[in-house]
Design brief:
48% of the residues lie in helices and 16% in strands. With 932 residues, it is an alpha/beta fold. It has four domains: 264 residues, TIM Barrel; 224 residues, Rossmann fold (3-Layer(aba) Sandwich); 155 residues, no CATH class; 191 residues. Strands 5-4-3-2-1-8-9 form a seven-stranded mixed sheet. The longest helix has 55 residues. The chain starts with 6 loop residues before the first strand and ends with a helix.
C-alpha cells in the first residue's frame, strides 16, 4: 500500500538522447528506433534503481514522447502492466544556454502535454532542426535572456506555462557554463529560483562554491539554494546513468513539488540513499463510528500531520489507533492529572461500542505487514502476520510486537508527576533489548526455583542420613552387646554369630553398588531416549549452497555417525548396569548373593541352637532386621544424594546468572540514560542509582511475615537501611542469607540446633525478639519468593536551568519539561511517535527549534501529529497532511476527512491556509529563509 503523501524518488535530471550533438552511440531517426531507445533507457533505469528522470537535450524535446510511451508500456516480470505509481517518472525538459551567461535546466510537470512542447520552445524563441533529423542543430545562446529573472518573465507571459515549470541553473563551479563565476553575484541574488544543478558529484564542489550555495557569502546575498547532482548521461550503453543520483521527495511529480523540495532541502533532498523508518503504522480503518462514520486513512512512514478545526475528529482517530494497538494511557491522579484511561473508555463506549464497530491497524515491521483488529464490543483482539491468517491474540502480544509511543493533549506537561511515564522515555527505545533481558532474568529465576527445590531436598536428605547413621550406630552397638552377652554357645557358633556384623556391612556395600548401577541404567535410558529423538529429527543434508554441498553431506554423515555410535555405547552401558542393578544370573554379584544367603542360613541355625537365650536372640533378630532395613534405606539415601551432589553449586550458579541478568538490565538502562541526556542536548540529565528502591521487596516481606507481629515500621526501616548502606547490594544479600537461615530453622527438629545468629539484620535495626518472630513465621517457600524480588534501581531526572546548573526535573516549569521531553523524543529512534497537539505543551519561542528537529527525527522514526500549529506542519515539512472538517457545514456533530495530500499539492496548501491560523505566515517563513 502507498499513501498519498510525499515519498523519496531516486532521480537523474540530466539525461540526453541520440539527438544530442555529443551523443556516444548510434543515431535513432525513425519512430521505431526512437521507441527502442526509450525502452532501453527505461530498462536501464529499472536496473539501476532510477525512479525518475528529466530528459534534457539542448534546446530540444524531440525524444520525450517516445520515452514517455516506453515508460507507460513497461510490464512486470509476469508481463502484466505496471501500476501507474510504479512506472518510471519522466519530467519533460531542456538544457538551456542563456545569455545570462550560464546554462540551466528547464523542467516541466511530469504530465505536461506532448503537444505543448513546441509551444514551450516558441516561448523562448528556440529554432530547432526538424524532428526527422538525427541530430539537433548547433546550440545557439539565447542571448536575449540576460538574467534568470527575465527568463521567468518570458515564460510567465504564456498562461499554459505559468506554474508548470521550474528552472535549475548550473552551479557546478566557476566555469563558463556556471552561474557562480565571478561577477555573477547580482544575477544570483535576484534569481527567483531556489535550486541549482551540478554536473557530477556535488561533494566535489570547491569550498567557495559551497559557501555561496549554502548562503554563507554576503556578496551573494546570503542566498541559499538546493543543489541537485546529475549524471549528464549521454551514452548508448547508459554506463553513466544515475552516477550520481539525487533522491527527491514529492507527492506528485510536478515543478511545484521540485520547488517545495528545494525550499526544504534538509527534509526533501538527499544526495545519498535516504533512511526512511522501516517500522511504521501504515493504515487505520474504522468500520463505523457515531462521530466519524466509516473511515480509512493511510499514514506516511515519515511524518503525517492531521489538521482541522477543533472537534473535527483528529484526536479521535489518534485515540482509535492507540486503542487498537493497546497503548496503555496512564491512570490519572485526581489531584494532579487527567484520567486518560477513563477518557478513552468513554470515547470507545460512546462512538464505537453501540455500533459493534471494530478498528483495524496495519503496522509495518521491517517490510512485513501486521494487521491488528480490535472489536469494540468486548475489546477482543486478532492479529495477522504477513500472509498468515487472523488469529486471536492478547494485549501484551500486541504491545510487545507492535509498540508505539503516544501522548494525548497536554500529556507531555503531565509526565514529570509520574515516574513511570518519565521512565518510559528511557525504556521505549530499548524495549526489545529490555524485554529480552527481562525474559532472561525470568528464565534464570525459574532455574533458581528448580535448583532451590533440589538443594532443599539435598539438605533434607543430608539431615535424614545423619539421623539414620546415628540410629544405625545405636542399633549396631545394641546388637553387639547382645551378642557378647550370649553364653552356652559352641566356639563355632559364637564365631559364626560374630561374623554377622561384617557380613551385613558387606551386604550394605553391595546393595549400594547395585543401587548405583540401577541409577546409571536409569540415566542411560534417559540419554538413549534423547539421542534417539535427535536421530529421528535429523533432516537430510542441505543441497545448497552448491559450492559447499560435499562438506555439508560429510558433516551430516559425521553427526549421524556420532549419534548412532552413542546409541550403541549407551545400549551397552544400559545392559551392563541393569545386569548388576537388577541382579545378574552369574558373575561376582551372583556369587556374593549365594554366599551371603548360605551364611544367613548358617547364622540363623547357630542362633536357634542357643535355647537358653531365646528372648535375647529374639531381640537380636529384631535389631538385625531393623539394621538391615536401615542399611537399605541409608543406601537409597546415599545413592540419591550422590545424584544431588551439585545441587548447592547449581543453585549458586543459577542465582549468580539471575544477578548477572539484572545487572545487564541496569547496565543497559545506564547506557540509555547517558544517551537520553545526549539526545536532549543536555536539557535533561539522567543517571541511575543502583539498588535504590526496596518498595516491592518490603511488600513481599510484609506478606511473608503476616501474623508475625513484627512492626510494619521496622520492616520499612529495614528496606531503608538496606538502600542507605554503603554497599546496598551486599547489604541486601547478607540480609537474605540471614533470613534464609531463620526460614530454615526448626526448633523441634533437633534440640542441639540453636537459632541462627543474625548480626547483619540486627545491625539493620532488628532485635533478637524480632528475629525470633521471623524464625517462627517465615517459611522456606516464602523466603524463596522474597529472594527473587530485587532491590530495584531508580533513575534520577534533572533539568538544566542554566549552563552547568541542574535542578530536579519536577521543579522545572511545565513548558520547560515538555520542550525537553519532546526534543528528546525527536532525537531518538524507536517505534512510531504519536502526539496529539504537541504545540499545547510548548513555549512559542522554541517552536522553530522543534521544527528543525523534525527534519532529522522523521528519518529515525515515524511521527504522527494532530496539530493546529502551521509551523509544525509547513516548516516541519509533513510528508502527508490529512485535513478534517464537518460532514455538514455548521453541524459539529459529525466529522470526516476532507482530503489527504502533501505540501507540494495545491489542495493541501490551500487547506492549510484555510484551516490553520498562521498558515499563510508559515508559507511566507518557508520562502523567506531563502531570501525572497
Amino acid at each position: 500500500m502507498t499513501d498519498q503523501g510525499a515519498h523519496f524518488y531516486r532521480c537523474d535530471f540530466q539525461v540526453h538522447t541520440p539527438r544530442d550533438l555529443r551523443w556516444a552511440g548510434a543515431n535513432a531517426v525513425t519512430d521505431d528506433e526512437r521507441l527502442a531507445y526509450g525502452r532501453s533507457l527505461v530498462q536501464a533505469c529499472r536496473e539501476r534503481g532510477i525512479q525518475a528522470i528529466a530528459v534534457t537535450d539542448h534546446h530540444c524535446m524531440t525524444f520525450l514522447p517516445f520515452i514517455r510511451s516506453a515508460a507507460t508500456e513497461e510490464t512486470d516480470a509476469q508481463g502484466d502492466e505496471l501500476p501507474e505509481g510504479q512506472r518510471l517518472i519522466v519530467f519533460p525538459g531542456m538544457e538551456l544556454t542563456l545569455g545570462v551567461p550560464c546554462q540551466a535546466l528547464l523542467l516541466f510537470d511530469a504530465d505536461f502535454p506532448d503537444d505543448m512542447f513546441s509551444l514551450a520552445m516558441t516561448a523562448l524563441s528556440i529554432t530547432q532542426n526538424s524532428s526527422e533529423n538525427a541530430k539537433s542543430c548547433d546550440v545557439e545562446q539565447l542571448s536575449h535572456i540576460q538574467s534568470l529573472l527575465q527568463l521567468k518573465d518570458e515564460l510567465d507571459k504564456h498562461q499554459y506555462l505559468r506554474g508548470r515549470y521550474t528552472v535549475l541553473p548550473n552551479v557546478t563551479g566557476e566555469g563558463e557554463h556556471s552561474l557562480l563565476r565571478k561577477g555573477q553575484h547580482g544575477k544570483y541574488k535576484e534569481m527567483p529560483w531556489v535550486g541549482g544543478y551540478t554536473d557530477g558529484n556535488a561533494s566535489k564542489l570547491k569550498p567557495r562554491v559551497i559557501n555561496i550555495v549554502t548562503g554563507k557569502e554576503k556578496e551573494w546575498g546570503h542566498k541559499r539554494i538546493a543543489c541537485i547532482q546529475t549524471s549528464d548521461s549521454r551514452r548508448e550503453d547508459h554506463a553513466t546513468l544515475g552516477e550520481p543520483s539525487t533522491w527527491i521527495k514529492w507527492a506528485k511529480p510536478t515543478a511545484e513539488a521540485l520547488r517545495q523540495a528545494c525550499l526544504a532541502e534538509e527534509s526533501r533532498i538527499s544526495r545519498e540513499a535516504p533512511h526512511v523508518p522501516e517500522t511504521y503504522i501504515a493504515r487505520v480503518s474504522i468500520s463505523n463510528s457515531t462521530f466519524l462514520g466509516p473511515l480509512d486513512l493511510e499514514f506516511n512512514p515519515q511524518y503525517s500531520a492531521l489538521i482541522g478545526g477543533r472537534g473535527t475528529g483528529k484526536s479521535t482517530v489518534l485515540e482509535y489507533v492507540r486503542w487498537a494497538l493497546c497503548d496503555q494511557p496512564p491512570l490519572g491522579d485526581e489531584d494532579q492529572t487527567p484520567n486518560y484511561q477513563a477518557r478513552r473508555g468513554r470515547l470507545i463506549d460512546g462512538t464505537l461500542k453501540t455500533l459493534r464497530a471494530s478498528v483495524e491497524v496495519v503496522y509495518i515491521l521491517n517490510n512485513v505487514a501486521h494487521l491488528v483488529r480490535r472489536q469494540a464490543t468486548d475489546g477482543s483482539l486478532q492479529m495477522k502476520v504477513g500472509h498468515g491468517d487472523l488469529a486471536p491474540c492478547t494485549e501484551e502480544d500486541v504491545r510487545a510486537l507492535l509498540p508505539i509511543q503516544a501522548y494525548s493533549q497536554k500529556q507531555l506537561s503531565d509526565v514529570s508527576v509520574r515516574v513511570e511515564e518519565l521512565t518510559r522515555f528511557i525504556t521505549a527505545p530499548i524495549k526489545g533489548d529490555l524485554d529480552r533481558l527481562q525474559r532472561k532474568a525470568a528464565d534464570r529465576a525459574n532455574h533458581i526455583r528448580e535448583a532451590y527445590a533440589t538443594r532443599q531436598r539435598f539438605r533434607d536428605l543430608s539431615r535424614l542420613l545423619q539421623n539414620r547413621m546415628l540410629e544405625e550406630r545405636s542399633i549396631t552397638q545394641q546388637a553387639d552387646a547382645i551378642r557378647s552377652s550370649l553364653t552356652g554357645l559352641s566356639d563355632e557358633d559364637r564365631a559364626l554369630l560374630g561374623q554377622g556384623q561384617s557380613y551385613n556391612a558387606a551386604q550394605a556395600q553391595v546393595a549400594a553398588w547395585r543401587a548405583g548401577a540401577s541409577t546409571l541404567a536409569d540415566r542411560a535410558r534417559e540419554l538413549h531416549a534423547l539421542a534417539a529423538s535427535q536421530r529421528r529429527a535429523l533432516s537430510p543434508a542441505p543441497e545448497q549452497p552448491e559450492a559447499l554441498k560435499e562438506p555439508l553431506a560429510a558433516a551430516h554423515a559425521a553427526y549421524d555417525g556420532l549419534v548412532a555410535d552413542a546409541l550403541r555405547q549407551i545400549d551397552a552401558l544400559t545392559n551392563a548396569a541393569a545386569a548388576i542393578g537388577e541382579g545378574e544370573a552369574s558373575g561376582p554379584f551372583a556369587v556374593w548373593e549365594a554366599g551371603y544367603r548360605d551364611f544367613k542360613l548358617r547364622y540363623d541355625q547357630a542362633a536357634s541352637r542357643s535355647s537358653s537365650h531365646t528372648e535375647k536372640l529374639k531381640q537380636l533378630q529384631n535389631l538385625e532386621a531393623k539394621l538391615a532395613e536401615l542399611a537399605a534405606e541409608t543406601t537409597r539415601v546415599r545413592e540419591t544424594l550422590s545424584t544431588l551432589q551439585t545441587a548447592e553449586e547449581k543453585y549458586r550458579t543459577a542465582h549468580d546468572e539471575w544477578q548477572s541478568a539484572l545487572s545487564e538490565q541496569d547496565d543497559l538502562i545506564d547506557r540509555e540514560c547517558s544517551a537520553l541526556t545526549e539526545r536532549s542536548g543536555g536539557l535533561i540529565r539522567v543517571s541511575v542509582r543502583r539498588y535504590a528502591n526496596a518498595e516491592n521487596f518490603i511488600t513481599s516481606l510484609r506478606q511473608a511475615l503476616a501474623g508475625s507481629r513484627l512492626q510494619t515500621a521496622k520492616q520499612e526501616a529495614l528496606g531503608e537501611a538496606i538502600i542507605s548502606a554503603s554497599d546496598p547490594k551486599q547489604s541486601w544479600q547478607s540480609a537474605l542469607t540471614e533470613l534464609e537461615a531463620l526460614a530454615d530453622y526448626d526448633e523441634g527438629r533437633s534440640q542441639a540446633e540453636s537459632r541462627p545468629q543474625t548480626p547483619h539484620l540486627q545491625g539493620l535495626g532488628l532485635t533478637a525478639t524480632d528475629t525470633e518472630r521471623i524464625a517462627n513465621t517465615l517459611k522456606p517457600e516464602d523466603w524463596l519468593a522474597l529472594s527473587l524480588i530485587p532491590i530495584e534501581s531508580a533513575p534520577v531526572y534533572e533539568f538544566r536551568a542554566r549552563e552547568g546548573d541542574y535542578i530536579p526535573f519536577e521543579n522545572a516549569s511545565a513548558g520547560q519539561q515538555a520542550t525537553a521531553l519532546l526534543k528528546t523524543l525527536l532525537n531518538q529512534s524507536g517505534p512510531p511517535l504519536i502526539i496529539d497537539q504537541p504545540e499545547e505543551d510548548l513555549d512559542n519561542p522554541v517552536m522553530l527549534e522543534i521544527v528543525e528537529q523534525i527534519w532529522d527525527a522523521k528519518t529515525l522514526r515515524q511521527i504522527i501529529f494532530a496539530s493546529h500549529n502551521a509551523n509544525l506542519v509547513v516548516n516541519g515539512d509533513a510528508e502527508l497532511v490529512a485535513w478534517f472538517g464537518y460532514r455538514t457545514d455548521n453541524d459539529q456533530s459529525r466529522g470526516t476527512i476532507h482530503g489527504v495530500g502533501a505540501i507540494d499539492v495545491e489542495d493541501a496548501r490551500n487547506a492549510i491556509k484555510r484551516i490553520m491560523e498562521g498558515g499563510d505566515a508559515a508559507f511566507r517563513l518557508r520562502r523567506e529563509k531563502y531570501g525572497f
